[in-house]
Design brief:
The protein has about 260 residues and is an alpha/beta fold. The protein is built from ten helices and ten strands. A seven-stranded mixed sheet has the order 6-2-1-7-8-10-9. A three-stranded antiparallel sheet has the order 3-5-4.
């Protein structure tokens, strides 16, 4: 009975939003959403769906729980150093204007980190930043962050590109200018092409193996030959060659051809 209730919820969410929860790891997703449903006082997922379909705040809370928006600037700093000092200089020789995509960008720390690096390296580039969660995108566009988000951001960049308010830091328009935010469902929507760099970190862990396999193919097709896919620290791709990719460094995969 309980499984039928959750399956009906999955079907209803897909019909209403296009989001297919069946492509996420079920135990993980079900546990997370069950605790949220119970916290809000609904006995069944069917009742909970009726509520989120009518109440925007509840719906955004559901999306937030589903997508786990945890991010900070220069997350895993060593990997960003590799991007700055090894990957980007090579890409700059390949393209005078580096076309980048921060996929599942959450609240904006990742695409803004990339923008900061491009500024520091005096490189020209455009950054598409996409996410399924409109609430996260709204926060990203504001560009206001706590000091916790900035703990790994180099001090000289904080001083140069952030305005300190009483309790927060606001990113400057110079950093914002090259980032374009867009709502996008990785599992359902089509991908743009001819990217030099795609960053998709700490998202694939939530998907089933089948969904991951399909996404790696789609990312590969979206890259130029020689372009790079940058993944999270728990998301090493085994047998990257099946996606026409090869390891360029740890967590960096170059499109072959």
């Amino acid at each position: 009975m309980e499984d039928k209730d959750f399956l009906q919820f999955i079907a209803s969410v897909k019909k209403m939003t296009g989001i297919d929860l069946a492509l996420y790891k079920e135990a993980q997703m079900k546990r997370r959403l069950t605790s949220l449903r119970q916290k809000r006082g609904y006995n069944t997922f069917v009742q909970y769906f009726d509520a989120i379909a009518k109440d925007k705040e509840l719906f955004y809370e559901f999306l937030d729980r589903m997508t786990i928006n945890v991010s900070e600037f220069f997350r895993n700093p060593g990997r960003w150093e590799v991007l700055e000092n090894k990957i980007l200089p090579r890409l700059a020789k390949q393209s005078s204007r580096i076309k980048c995509w921060s996929a599942a960008c959450s609240t904006g720390e990742e695409p803004y980190t990339l923008s900061l690096i491009l500024l520091r390296k005096h490189l020209d580039g455009t950054i598409l930043a996409s996410d399924i969660d409109e609430g996260a995108l709204a926060k990203a566009k504001q560009g206001v962050y706590t000091d916790r988000s900035l703990q790994d951001c180099p001090k000289e960049l904080v001083a140069k590109y952030f305005v300190k308010d009483a309790l927060s830091y606001r990113i400057t328009d110079e950093v914002k200018r090259r980032v374009t935010f867009k709502k996008h469902n990785l599992l359902a929507d089509s991908f743009d092409t001819q990217f030099d760099l795609i960053i998709c970190r700490n998202v694939m862990i939530y998907f089933t193996e089948e969904a991951k396999h399909e996404l790696y193919h789609k990312f590969s097709r979206a890259l130029k030959p020689g372009g790079v896919l940058f993944v999270g620290s728990t998301e090493q791709i085994f047998q990257p060659q099946q996606y026409q990719l090869e390891a360029e460094d740890t967590f960096f995969y170059r499109k072959m051809g």
